[in-house]
Design a protein that fits this description.
Layout (H helix, E strand, L loop, with lengths): L3 E7 L3 E7 L5 E8 L11 E2 L1 H19 L6 E8 L4 E5 L9 E2 L7 H9 L7 H4 L8 H11 L1 H9 L2 E5 H9 L9 E3 H4 L5 E2 L4 E2 L1 H6 L9 E3 L2 E6 L8 E7 H8 L8 E5 L3 E8 L10 E6 L7 E8 L3 H9 L9 H6 L9 E3 L17 E3 L7 H27 L6 E4 L6 H11 L3 E4 L4 H14 L5 H5 L4 E5 L5 H18 L5
Length: 498
C-alpha cells in the first residue's frame, strides 16, 4: 500500500524533493541549490540541465533517506518557480538556451512595444495581467526575435517550450521517449498568452507576440494524471502541478473566498481567494488562476507579487558581506531597537505590485553617521513587511475586505523579528502553521486528490494546524508614521531609468 506522496519543489535558488504522509506531515527531504547566472545587467539565467540533474539527485536522496521504494509512493506532485521559461529541442532533449528567470528584465523593450497600442493594461481583460517583463510570453517573444537558431527550430517544428513545470514533467515522464508536454492552468495563467475565460491559449495573444502554438504545452488542470514517471520513480503517476504561490495557497487550505496567505521566499507573494470568477484589478494586483481540480470549475485569486524579499537578505550576505549566513540577519537586526531612520527599497529589477515600475531601481535612503550594520539588517527585514503592507492595502481597496489575520509561510517565517514587525505594520495577527513547507504540501494535496490518497478538501482543511501567532504591539500612530516614510522612499525610486 503506498504510504507517501512525493513532491518536487523547484524554486528560484534550489530544488527539493519532500515526501508527505497521509497526515500531511513532511518526512524525508533532500535539497540542492543551483547556480544563478547574471550575463548582463538585468539578465538572470538558470541552467535547465543542472536543474534536471538536481531533480534526479534529490529524488534519489529523499527515497534513500526515507528507506522507501517507488512502489510506496502513491503519486508525484510538481510545484515550481512560475514565469521562468525553458526552450528545448524535442528530438535531443537538450535546452537550446539558458532558462530565462522570472526576475529577468531583458524583454523591457518588447513590453514597451506591446503597450504602445492600448497601454500596459492592453491584455488585462483577457489575461488578468499587466504587460510586464515578469511574465513568460514576452520572454519567449524576445528569444524568437533575438536568437536565430530558436526561430529556425520553431519553424521546423523541433522546438518545445514551457515554464519549469513543463520541462520537469516532460523529463520525468520519459523526455524524448514519449514525455508529456503539459502545463497546468496556474502556470499558463502567468504567461500573458492564456485567456482566463477559456483557459486556453489565445490566438490573438499568440499573434501579438509572434508565438507559434505548436511549441506550447497542453494546458491541463492542477490535479489529474499527466503521465507515468520513469527513472527512480518508475511507475508513479505524475498527478499534480501547481505554480509555487498557488501551491502555497492550496497547502494553507485557503479554499474559501476571502482566505489569504503570504509566502516569504526569494520574493514575496500574497494571494487572496476570490472564488469562481476572475476579479480584474484596478489597483496594481494580478488576477490569476488559484487552482483547478480535475474537471471541476477553476478557482481564481488576486495576487500581489513582490520581486525581492529573501533575495535582499542574500544581497546583504553575498554582495555586502555583513552576514555570513542568511539566518544571522535576525540576530544582527536585534542589536538595534529600530531602523535608525534608514529605508531600503529593493527595486533591483524595478518594482512589481502594486506599482509595476520597470524604471525604478533600488535605494538606501535616510543615511546618517549614526547608522550601523544592525540598522541595515533591520531595514532589510522591514522592507519585506512594508512591501506586504502595500499589497494588503491594495487588496482592501480592490475587494473591500479587511483581513482578520494573515497566514504566513515560506523560508523567512522562521524569522520571528520579521513576523512581529509584519503584524505591527499590518495591525492584524500573523499566523504560522506547523507545516511551513506549504508550497510543497499544496502540490502534494493536488497530486494526492487526483489518485484518491485524500478524499476531498474538507479532509485537507482538518489537517491544518497553527504553530505560532503574532499580535500587533505598535500604536496606530507609530505604524502610520513609519509606513508614510516607506511610501516616501518608494516614490524616490521611480524614474531612475530613462
Amino acid at each position: 500500500m503506498p504510504r507517501y506522496i512525493a513532491v518536487i519543489d523547484q524554486g528560484t535558488t534550489s530544488t527539493r524533493c519532500i515526501l508527505f504522509d497521509h497526515t500531511g506531515r513532511a518526512g524525508a527531504m533532500a535539497q540542492t541549490e543551483h547556480r544563478q547566472f547574471y550575463p548582463r545587467a538585468g539578465w538572470i539565467e538558470h541552467d535547465p540541465l543542472e536543474i534536471w540533474r538536481n531533480t534526479q539527485a534529490v529524488i534519489a536522496e529523499a527515497l534513500r533517506k526515507a528507506g522507501v521504494e517507488a512502489k510506496e509512493i502513491a503519486a508525484l506532485g510538481v510545484t515550481n518557480q512560475r514565469e521562468t521559461l525553458v526552450v528545448w529541442d524535442k528530438t535531443t532533449g537538450n535546452p537550446v538556451y539558458p532558462a530565462i528567470v522570472w526576475q529577468d528584465t531583458r524583454s523591457a523593450e518588447i513590453c514597451e512595444r506591446l503597450a504602445m497600442d492600448g497601454g500596459q493594461d492592453r491584455f488585462r481583460a483577457r489575461t488578468g495581467l499587466p504587460i510586464a517583463t515578469y511574465f513568460s510570453g514576452p520572454k519567449l517573444q524576445w528569444l524568437l526575435e533575438n536568437v536565430e537558431e530558436i526561430s529556425i527550430q520553431a519553424e521546423r517544428g523541433t522546438l518545445l517550450c514551457g515554464t519549469i513545470d513543463s520541462w520537469l514533467v516532460w523529463n520525468l515522464t520519459g523526455g524524448t521517449d514519449g514525455g508529456a508536454h503539459v502545463t497546468d492552468v496556474t502556470n499558463a495563467s502567468r504567461t500573458l498568452l492564456m485567456n482566463l475565460e477559456t483557459l486556453a491559449w489565445d490566438d490573438d495573444l499568440l499573434a501579438a507576440m509572434n508565438v507559434p502554438p505548436s511549441i506550447l504545452p497542453a494546458i491541463r488542470s492542477s490535479s489529474e494524471i499527466y503521465g507515468i514517471a520513469k527513472g527512480a520513480l518508475a511507475g508513479v503517476p505524475v498527478a499534480g502541478i501547481l505554480g509555487d504561490q498557488q501551491a502555497a495557497l492550496f497547502g494553507q487550505t485557503c479554499f474559501n473566498v476571502g482566505d489569504a496567505k503570504n509566502t516569504y521566499g526569494t520574493g514575496c507573494f500574497m494571494l487572496l481567494n476570490t472564488g469562481p470568477r476572475p476579479v480584474l484589478s484596478a489597483h496594481g494586483l494580478i488576477t490569476t488562476v488559484a487552482y483547478q481540480l480535475g474537471t471541476a470549475a477553476p478557482v481564481f485569486a488576486l495576487e500581489g507579487s513582490i520581486a525581492v524579499t529573501g533575495a535582499l537578505v542574500q544581497w546583504l550576505r553575498d554582495n555586502l558581506g555583513l552576514i555570513r549566513t542568511s539566518a544571522e540577519v535576525e540576530s544582527l537586526a536585534n542589536t538595534v531597537e529600530d531602523n535608525g531612520g534608514i529605508y531600503i527599497v529593493p527595486a533591483f529589477s524595478g518594482l512589481f505590485a502594486p506599482y509595476w515600475r520597470s524604471d525604478a531601481r533600488g535605494i538606501v535612503i535616510g543615511l546618517t553617521r549614526y547608522v550601523n550594520k544592525g540598522h541595515f539588517a533591520r531595514a532589510v527585514l522591514e522592507a519585506t513587511a512594508y512591501q506586504t503592507r502595500d499589497i494588503v492595502d491594495a487588496m482592501r481597496q480592490e475587494t473591500g475586505l479587511d483581513l482578520d489575520a494573515l497566514k504566513a509561510d515560506g523560508g523567512m517565517v522562521v524569522n520571528e523579528t520579521l513576523m512581529q514587525f509584519q503584524s505591527d505594520i499590518l495591525g492584524i495577527p500573523v499566523i504560522r502553521p506547523i507545516v511551513t513547507e506549504t508550497t510543497a504540501l499544496g502540490a502534494a494535496y493536488a497530486a494526492g486528490l487526483a489518485v484518491g490518497f485524500w478524499t476531498d478538501s474538507e479532509e485537507l482543511r482538518n489537517q491544518w494546524r497553527k504553530d505560532k501567532e503574532w499580535h500587533p504591539r505598535m500604536t496606530s500612530a507609530a505604524r502610520e508614521q513609519l509606513y508614510a516614510a516607506w511610501k516616501k522612499a518608494v516614490m524616490r525610486t521611480f524614474g531612475w531609468l530613462e
